[in-house]
Write a structure and sequence with these properties.
Number of strands: 17
Distance between the termini: 40 Å
Number of helices: 14
Radius of gyration: 25 Å
CATH class of the largest domain: Alpha Beta
Shape: elongated
């Protein structure tokens, strides 16, 4: 399930409701400790050294509660009661170069700047070469603003309890949070009608896509699963067309048809095997068999005639099938707040979003949720996939989801072309198109998950034993 992003007050309300129903804090702490231990065991090997850093509060209790479940690891715990008297012990522990540091020094209730000895502890954690995991929230980070209180731990990962906190997903917080995941099923009651503090934002979860997309009927044929038409590619930008078409085929629609500019058709067609490739010059034609359209990747050369730009706008306005607009097509869309009768999707990165809204990319990044809402309204209450770290999926009203998958290796030319094609290939399929929200969430998650799998494979290789061709 997706997890609501909670303000500090909403999280406190959830906890108080849990205690009011008879759940003991000690029981929740014990379950959190076990979840922490499970994660530690997954990411370490027998014999690895684990340094546990626990403060006086419940975050420290959570860390301590993991110890009984840690086996075949060298575990050292420092429970900070008098930090000034424990500096030498802490320094020695870091000097031993632990394989993993797990810190629970301060929790979400911290409301003062870290100074003196505490600031020194944080700076030394950040200067260490160990992998650092923060429990619930990086110590020193404000739970609502996402700003460091004087200083904050820069974690590689944060395992947050119950649900993400609002400050952990704001622009700039990621340098402290690292990769975030949720420790769920720790004994808190159902969130129920506890308010989210006005934050209509959800953290996505891969569990939402178990057994999805659904299995296809045994008796089916290519016509059963739709046809996506990709309008992409021009002189000097033929690679975008190839990538978008390949992305579409990975979604497994029945057919993929690519229309590319006449100047790039030879370079494109030679690279594709199971895609029908056609050329256009000044006129675009949406095939009657088309069940979704992707338009924009690589339509960037000076060869693109103004008539093509006008036709892109007409397809967006009039097509009776789902349409995904990406890259150059984003600049040619008609502005209208009138809702479309069929699914419309735009996939801008922050720079494109800024251009579409007439603001700076810094303003987009400062409030990505507001930017997404504004884009959706401006272009007919369409669906928006606002790309970047923590890609957001949503529209002018209703929930907005933050995608949890992906890594910095997606920050390269072509990744967005693949995503646009993949989303179009999913939207083209008759059996899926009734739930565009789930399609878009799944498509973005699967795209990022593929990058994570590639990174995991690279990390598993012994660089001294790589084949010569690498």
């Amino acid at each position: 399930m997706a997890y609501p992003v909670l303000t500090l007050q909403a999280m406190r309300d959830w906890e108080e409701r849990t205690w009011a129903q008879g759940v003991l804090e000690a029981d929740v702490i014990a379950q959190v400790g076990r979840r922490i231990a499970e994660r530690i065991m997954e990411m370490t090997a027998p014999g690895d050294s684990i340094l546990l850093l626990a403060g006086k509060g419940h975050n420290g209790d959570d860390v301590c509660a993991a110890i009984p479940w840690l086996s075949r690891r060298s575990v050292q715990l420092i429970r900070f009661h008098h930090v000034s008297k424990q500096t030498a012990t802490f320094d020695a522990a870091l000097a031993d170069a632990p394989d993993l540091v797990v810190e629970g020094l301060f929790g979400i209730g911290l409301n003062r700047a870290l100074e003196g000895d505490w600031a020194d502890v944080v700076h030394k954690i950040n200067a260490s070469r160990a992998t650092v995991v923060s429990i619930d929230i990086p110590s020193g980070l404000h739970a609502d603003s996402g700003q460091p209180l004087g200083c904050a731990v820069r974690a590689d990962q944060t395992w947050t309890v119950g649900a993400p906190k609002a400050g952990m997903v704001v622009q700039g917080a990621s340098v402290y949070v690292g990769r975030m995941s949720v420790l769920a099923d720790v004994g808190l009651t159902d969130l129920g009608d506890v308010g989210m503090g006005g934050v209509d934002l959800y953290w996505g979860d891969e569990g939402d896509f178990v057994d999805w997309p659904p299995k296809r009927p045994l008796v089916s044929h290519k016509g059963s699963h739709g046809c996506v038409q990709v309008l992409a590619g021009s002189r000097g930008y033929h690679g975008a067309a190839v990538l978008a078409a390949r992305g579409a085929t990975r979604a497994r629609p029945g057919l993929v048809e690519l229309m590319t500019h006449v100047s790039s058709i030879d370079a494109v067609a030679l690279q594709l095997q199971n895609v029908m490739v056609h050329a256009f010059d000044r006129h675009l034609l949406v095939s009657p068999k088309t069940t979704a359209v992707v338009m924009g990747p690589g339509l960037a050369s000076n060869d693109i005639h103004v008539d093509v730009k006008i036709q892109v706008a007409e397809i967006w306005r009039d097509a009776s099938v789902p349409v995904v607009a990406d890259a150059s097509a984003l600049d040619w869309l008609p502005v209208s707040e009138e809702s479309h009768s069929t699914t419309r999707v735009i996939t801008p990165h922050p720079g494109e979003a800024a251009r579409m809204l007439g603001i700076s990319s810094q303003e987009v990044q400062a409030d990505r949720l507001a930017a997404l809402r504004s884009l959706s309204v401006k272009y007919g209450h369409c669906w928006v996939v606002l790309k970047g770290h923590h890609t957001m999926i949503g529209r002018s009203s209703g929930p907005v989801y933050i995608n949890p998958s992906g890594n910095p290796n997606l920050a390269q030319g072509g990744a967005g072309d693949i995503l646009a094609g993949f989303l179009g290939g999913l939207l083209a399929q008759h059996e899926l198109m009734d739930d565009p929200e789930k399609i878009l969430r799944y498509g973005v998650w699967a795209h990022g998950h593929a990058a994570d799998q590639c990174q995991a494979l690279l990390d598993s290789w012994d660089v001294n034993q790589l084949p010569d061709w690498l």
